Amino acid sequence: MFNTLFPSLRTSVKIASFLIAGSLFSATAHAGAHCKNVYVSAINKTGATIKIIDMDYYDPAYSKWRSEPTKNQLIPAGRNWQETRRLERVNAKQTYVRIQYRKPKTKGIGKWSKVFTAYSARKTCQNGSNFQIILR
After folding, report:
1. DSSP label at 89?
2. What percent of the chain has pLDDT over 90?
3. Most buried pick, 15, 56, 59, 90, via CB within 10 A?
4. pTM listed for this prediction
5. Which residues touch 64 (CB under 8 Å, ≥6 apart)?
6. What SS3 class is residue 111?
């Protein structure tokens, strides 16, 4: 009897259910889609061993730098440093990466210079993106 009295209401309920289920599915799929497996490499072209002390990426939605935990690592001249990371909150947005490092001082053994900063090119971050930085 319900079907005969309100046939258009039943169709409307089916359509609404379909739309709600579709929007929930796309929101769930989008929520998990971060900028994963991002490859960051830095090439030491300073001519000396350097110490990498920090790596950050820019979050354009909040206009701030987000730090990625990085151990202080010594990188010999001409060698590469590389990491694979997950950059949260920047999926499909323009971002870039910065590396902070120190050079050895010319006087004194074990003494390090002020902090230098080098930046990658700006690009849209997606799963598997590649950011390369030259340290001079």
Report:
1. T
2. 65
3. 90
4. 0.73
5. 58
6. coil
